[in-house]
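Hi V.,

Quick status before I head out on leave. The structure for the redesign project is tokenized and pasted below; the design run finished overnight.
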């Protein structure tokens, strides 16, 4: 991306209602347009944004977002709830915002979503490997504990005393 600052887009992705989403305020900054203008374009083309592409956050979701993300503190006093765009919604924004910068930013955002999905898959693979190791270690620990118990049982048997014998008759 020549001449464009490339932030870590993955940090701009949140999860709401089971969707990975980006917030309108972040997208407006990336596209270099005011949030109000972005929302106006979306409203003019609302038929392109079904509920699984875009939705408005509830007041509780907005409060949670503001609490967890300091950079969005300005939303705290806003009377309008932010819009959340899924990956498909962000992709659809490129057809609504037709500038060259919007297209380039959109490509990078799509790549960020792909990296995000890849990280999630890697985490699932890692989780599976850890569970396999856990089973192996559990078996090994059980084997060792059984051996210790066996040794302990053997050590409780009477042994022949070791050392000098003292004659009790003297």
């Amino acid at each position: 991306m020549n001449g464009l600052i490339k932030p870590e887009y993955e940090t701009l992705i949140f999860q709401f209602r089971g969707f990975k989403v980006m917030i309108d305020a972040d997208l407006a900054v990336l596209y270099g347009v005011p949030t109000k203008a972005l929302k106006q374009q979306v409203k003019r083309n609302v038929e392109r944004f079904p509920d699984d592409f875009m939705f408005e956050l509830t007041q509780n979701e907005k409060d949670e977002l503001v609490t967890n993300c300091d950079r969005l503190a300005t939303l705290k006093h806003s009377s309008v709830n932010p819009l959340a765009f899924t990956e498909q919604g962000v992709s659809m924004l490129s057809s609504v915002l037709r500038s060259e910068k919007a297209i380039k930013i959109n490509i990078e955002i799509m790549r960020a979503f792909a990296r995000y999905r890849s990280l999630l898959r890697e985490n699932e693979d890692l989780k599976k490997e850890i569970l396999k190791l856990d089973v192996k270690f559990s078996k090994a620990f059980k084997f060792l504990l059984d051996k210790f118990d066996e040794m302990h049982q053997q050590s409780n048997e009477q042994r022949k005393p070791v050392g000098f014998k003292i004659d009790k008759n003297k």
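Above is the designed sequence. Confidence is low (pLDDT under 50) at residues 1-7.

G. will cover questions while I'm gone.

Best,
W.
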